[in-house]
């Protein structure tokens, strides 16, 4: 959120669209790569939709071309996009990977979660102060 607020202060909508476009394309490609890796490593697991591997491989070929072209034509925008993605790494380690957190950190995370849910009108019933039905 902090990175998004800083980017919004830039004021140039075109640059903001470029940041978001690069991040989206990068995430889509990594997702398709994950699909191919899972199909290769775990071929027997249940899949509600199973497509021929030629489709994701073709998509990855076009994706790689677009990504390389983006990196070549606008390296600064792509670099800032990567930095925006990497701002999520500390959040992952603090919120997910670190299992034995002190109670004060757990309380802080829970209160921030509850505050964010109330702010976005998506309050989960387990949140303190929420009315039970």
Give an overview in words.
By secondary structure, the protein is mainly alpha-helical. It has one domain (1-120). Helices cover 73% and strands 0% of the residues. It is built from 6 helices and no strands. The chain has helices spanning 2-10, 13-41, 54-73, 75-86, 88-97, 103-119. α2 runs antiparallel to α3, α2 (13-41) crosses α4 and α3 packs across α4 (75-86). The mean pLDDT is 82.
List keywords for this structure.
133 residues, mainly alpha, 6 helices, 73% helix, transmembrane, neutral L-amino acid transmembrane transporter activity, membrane
DSSP strand (E) fraction? under 5%
Low-confidence stretches: none
C-alpha geometry: extended
> What distance separates the N and C termini?
32 Å
Mean pLDDT: 82
Radius of gyration: 20 Å
- Work out the helix count: 6
Oligomer: single chain
| Helical proportion, percent range | over 70%
Give the ordered list of helices and strands: HHHHHH
**Count of distinct strands:** 0
What number of structural domains do the residues give?
1
- Sheet with the most strands, sense and barrel status: none
Structural class: mainly alpha
């Amino acid at each position: 959120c902090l990175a998004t607020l800083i980017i919004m202060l830039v004021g140039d909508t075109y640059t903001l669209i470029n940041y978001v476009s690069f991040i989206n394309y990068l995430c889509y490609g990594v997702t398709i790569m994950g699909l191919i890796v899972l199909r290769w490593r775990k071929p027997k697991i249940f899949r509600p939709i199973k497509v021929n591997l030629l489709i994701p491989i073709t998509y990855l070929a076009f994706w790689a071309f677009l990504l390389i072209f983006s990196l070549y034509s606008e390296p600064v925008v792509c670099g800032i996009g990567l930095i925006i993605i990497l701002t999520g790494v500390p959040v992952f380690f603090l919120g997910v990977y670190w299992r034995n957190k002190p109670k004060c950190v757990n309380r802080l995370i829970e209160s921030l979660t509850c505050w964010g849910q109330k702010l976005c009108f998506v309050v989960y019933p387990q949140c303190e102060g929420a009315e039970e039905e």
